[in-house]
Amino acid sequence: MSRLNEANVELAQEIIARYPRRKSALIPLLHVAQEQNGYVTTAAMEHLAELVGITPAEVLGTASFYEMFKFEPQGKYMVNICTNISCQLLGGEELLHHAEKTLGIRPGGTTDDGLFTLEDVECMAACTEAPCLQVNYRHEYRLDHDDFDTLISELRSGSRPDIPDHGTLGLVRQHIPDGRMAGIDSPEKTGSPEWFTARSSN
Length: 202
Ligand code: FES
What we know:
By secondary structure, the protein is an alpha+beta fold. The protein has helices at 6-16, 26-37, 42-52, 56-63, 85-89, 92-103, 145-157, 187-190, 194-201, and strands spanning 77-82, 116-121, 133-135, 138-140. It has two domains: 6-71, Arc Repressor Mutant, subunit A (Orthogonal Bundle); 77-157, Glutaredoxin (3-Layer(aba) Sandwich), CATH 3.40.30. A hairpin with a 2-residue loop joins β3 (133-135) and β4 (138-140). The radius of gyration is 21 Å and the shape is elongated. The relative contact order is 0.12. The structure holds FE2/S2 (inorganic) cluster. Residues 82, 84-87, 123-124, 126-127, 130, 132 line the site of FE2/S2 (inorganic) cluster.
């Protein structure tokens, strides 16, 4: 299974250079890995461990804390439907059942064509727009069942360029030009900060 490709190794080195310690770059690097394959592969985690100088177990230990990182193949579109209280009161559960019927899968499942993964999720901080859902973490608000079916048709036909494939965090890649870096050195180079030395000698 996939390690990072050549272009992403180059990107990874650029990201690592922004941090005083290599391992501090781990979270953005996990996003790079997830963007490449739609999920974080075991080989990618081993590769990240080599790149930042920690063990694969440490990479997994960090990544598995975060719900957004997935460790097995996902649909191209992850549909997260909220069934917490505000959404539930305004039809969130019925929307989820409708989605199950439309897509022919249960929460946690992926359609046979690999296009959609369905999830039943907790509040996504858009309670005033209930019932709502996210596709690849992009919100859709106040949906009735017809709106849901329209959304699925649009995704199937590729007419939603505003929603990228699962794993893509931003549509625009951040590049920090040379000379604009924060230039922070690690404590190994600079020594402990004064406030820390003062506190530890008390
Ligand atoms: S309860 Fe659904 S977004 Fe808050």
